[in-house]
Description:
Number of helices: 8
Bound molecules: flavin-adenine dinucleotide
Strand order of the largest sheet: 7-11-6-1-4-5-12
Helix content: 25-40%
Radius of gyration: 22 Å
Order of helices and strands: EEEHEHEHEHEEEEEEEHEHEHEEH
Number of strands: 17
Distance between the termini: 63 Å
Amino acid sequence: MPDVLTYVLHYEGAFNKNSLGAVSEGAARAAEIGGECHAVVVGGEDLTDELCSSLGAYGATKVFRARGPEGLAQPVVDAMASVIDRQGHSYALFGGGLLGFEIGAGLAARKHAGVTMEVTAVRAEDGKLVAERPILQDSKISISRYQGDLGIIIGRINAFETVSRDGGPAEVVDVDVEYSPWSDRATMVQRGEQRGADVDIEGADILVAGGRGLGKAEGFKLAEDLAAAFGGNTAVAATRAVVDAGWYPYAAQIGQTGKTVSPKLYLAAGISGAIQHKVGMQSSENIVAINKDANAPIFEFSDLGVVGDLNKILPKLTNAIKARKGS
Ligand SMILES: Cc1cc2nc3c(=O)[nH]c(=O)nc-3n(C[C@H](O)[C@H](O)[C@H](O)COP(=O)(O)OP(=O)(O)OC[C@H]3O[C@@H](n4cnc5c(N)ncnc54)[C@H](O)[C@@H]3O)c2cc1C
């Protein structure tokens, strides 16, 4: 049967949202080609029967449980390759995120399989799965069809919606995995979870986005003050440069490797407007940019551009909005 295998990451007794999206997507698409969706989980004693079988609620019919280190790519590649060798899955499907990219790429190399990354849609065609991936700044869609025994599909982050189903509990199957000699070379030193942190930038009507022009992590106070003055459904967003610098959480990142948003107002403060940022916010209804460099690329796609120092402009704007609102 053309079954789909997914990997489900867990942390402190709960499954990762992106992974649940992958299971939901895998189950829906597998059903269309007459197969089932199965999941691989890797971890310790916290992977109880109850927790594993709960993946049935998202459409998984079988969960292969391997004992091993959780959160590292190579052991998962070993576990998935071993399950695929025994069960003959036709597709491996992952939610977005760095771990999914790493595992998917490793599995593609191990199994000599075709891989498509940043997939935003999967559909069935003539009994096979086809992956759609936006290209050329999301202006076109490239379509991947797979040859050979295995096709690997890696979603764009949050591309696959988590859908609960009425299905019963999934069957839990313990698998012995012979880990590769290099799989224990990396160990988990510290683990944090920022994806899906409590920042709802995708649902916000107004986004105040900050870039490197804010100068330092504390500079985000200016953006937060302005967001608070707007009130209502307003949130603070960020560029990758400041997320990489540790100034703001990844959950707030807009762009190619972050989230795609289309608020009513996108106010960009100290953001140059790199193409990888633009693709995540260009469909905002109104774009206002504050930048001290009149030649900054962001002005090319802004509705209103303010050339000046954000350290002076943002507090004035905040005060003006407060005054207007009488707060
Ligand atoms: C594969 C790949 C994926 C990427 N994915 C993303 C992504 O998802 N999201 C993303 O954002 N980026 C992404 N990037 C990075 C992107 O290329 C840029 O490096 C990044 O967006 C720049 O962030 P920035 O605008 O904050 O910083 P900068 O480019 O350094 O711009 C800072 C701006 O602030 C202005 N400024 C400085 N001081 C002030 C001041 N006092 N007042 C007003 N203006 C001021 C400057 O004139 C400048 O224009 C990706 C890159 C690659 C290669």
